[in-house]
Hints:
- By secondary structure, the chain is mainly beta.
- 4% of the residues lie in helices and 29% in strands.
- Among the domains are: 7-105, Immunoglobulin-like; 108-223, Leucine-rich repeat, LRR (right-handed beta-alpha superhelix).
- Helix 4 (726-736) links the parallel strand 60 and strand 61.
- The model is unreliable at 1-23 and 176-182 (pLDDT under 50).
Amino acid sequence: xxxxxxxxxxxxxxxxxxxxxxxxxxxxxxxxxxxxxDGMDRISVEGEGIQSVSYSSSAKKVARVDRKGKVTxxxxxxxxxxxxxxxxxxxxTMEKVLSYQLRILGKSTEYFKYDKYKVxxxxxxxxxxxxxxxxxxxxxxxxxxxxxxxxxFRNNKAVEKVYTPDNLVYLDYFDWEEDYDKSExxxxxxKLRELHLGKNxxxxxxxxxxxxxxxxxxxxxxxxxxxxxxxxxxxKNTLELYPGGRKDVSYQIPxxxxxxxxxAFSGAKNLKHIAFSKGIEDISLAFDNSGLVEVTxxxxxxxxxxxxxxxxxxxxxxxxxxxxxxxxxxxxxxxxIKLKTVVIPGKMDGSNFSGCQSLERFTLSSKVKDxxxxxxxxxxxxxxxxxxxxxxxxxxxxxxxxxxxEIGKSAFEGVQHLEEVVMNPEVVSIGRNAFLNARIAKVAMxxxxxxxxxxxxxxxxxxxxxxxxxxxxIGDALFADCKKLQxxxxxxxxxxxxxxxxxxxxxxxxxxIPKKVRKIEYGEYLFTDGCKSLSAFTVDRDNQxxxxxxxxxxxxxxxxxxxxxxxxxxxxxxVPRSVKKIAGYAFEGQAYLQEVSMxxxxxxxxxxxxxxxxxxxxFSKKLKSLPLFAFAHxxxxxxxxxxxxxxxxADGAFKGCTxxxxxxxxxxxxxxxxxxxxxxxxxxxxFRRKIKNSNDVDAYARNETYKNAGSSNYRKLVVKVPGCxxxxxxxxxxxxYGPGCLDKKAKLVFGKVK
Length: 754
């Protein structure tokens, strides 16, 4: 564990490399107080009239410094690095000795994980996770470390202080190709008290969990950030970060600030009151989970979506802003469980008050003209649209008044006490998210209802869903995450079942596809994500696009298998000879099926058998490729024989198959990235593809094909390759033992292959 540095070192970090001295005075710049054995540093001296500089180290057995200021570590310990400077001042030649104390730690790879280019830190090792004081390295070898990955510190319960080096540019690095969102890089770091930012840092990210943070410092030379009153600001009029551990009960945002960054005040439990600067425009997601007790959102604010969500102590909110910015005004007060009084300026999205269990009524601003209130429920001025039902309003049953033709977007979202809603005969439309996250168990729909929006009943307590035949259109994820939903009756007049309609409906037992359904959007993912009780599909006999046999869902021609029910308990399954394609996710998560024979199948969709209980698979001789994650996380699969017909094995095809021991790859197989990643028990991979050219060599491995395979250090893994010329043997060794592939502890064997 790293100890605390000497007082001189703290001073160096506080003003960073003597930046507080006059610019004319010589000073050491870019000096890192801590470096690692596998790193280095480059320092220099700045000032006016400098004629010569000579560097030295007080302990050459610990660190050396050359005449150009390159600092090279030798072993762990401390050394004083000196710079003897000769310079002219007022016509006189002067000499001065500058110095700072340097500490050398072990190799950075003992504490940090890197990406393959060694320029971004992706995480901490087990040893690194024990550090209380983390100094991010400036170099790994001769390469500058430029970024820290968004998730690098996630849930680290030990770290108390973090120091970033001058080289570091991004504290929120993320990879667009892997679809990472911008960082919440200290989430779960409940003991983080100090954050010290270096010279070149220009992206801090979103610090969504900083309730213990007490101190922030920034190098004075930083062009992007500054600290005022221990609060971090960008130099573009944005308040970036307020220390959550600060003791103040009130805070005035300085004049000129236009934006408060996401999560800037997150977890600031001591803060009870906030005063906004004149002209502030964007406070979206800024004060979530803080200790505020009351707030007024001024008219100037354009964006305030999610701004006060999770503020458990908030009791009163006055909204003067009508919002018109890019960020939608949604979830502003979600789960503010003590919120009782809200003054609103006009129509508002119901998601703003989802889960506000104490909110029984709204107060309308005197300027409001387009809303009316009846029995504490809000309606449009013409009385035809129900806009907002207070989330904490008492009463288990609610019947819509006569004349209501539409239930608005998020109208009942997150209501806490209501169990049943009865519609009047005039309702023709239910808006998006209308009952999302509500505790409603029963909705009696009328026979004139025509349209239901996305996620209208998602996350509710519905037990039975019955859509009248008048309904012609339903939205995405309509019943998603309805854990208690046991049965569904779909309208006979719908033609499309949209994306994710029933995902994670864990109690759903059966689904009937009506006559007119011609399209199941993302059909491969509709019923294979968490519908563990679903034992059979049925299809109307007159449907021209789908059919079901033995409870399995197929296209009408039976050429495509769309979905195999997760609750079907058969151990063996032979795909019918008519089937040419198995759709993506078709068997995903199937917990009973142990053996599959593919028969005449020529194509598989992505994730087709992922997370299933398969122990044995017989491939079709017509199959030409294994797609992305086709058998990923099949934890009981032990042996695989990839036939000669298969040309390509896509990324992650067998990733996480922890019982997989033996693989025989056919004469044409070309392995892509991460194919055997985390196959901990992989013992032997035999290739039948002969090496005739460099493409054949490449086919054995791509980036991290065998990552963490054959135990975490590859010790038990043998890769057998057909005999070849000396030239290609060398190429094969370079490829397989190259960066991101096999460790040299794995055994590579050339010889006869049957």
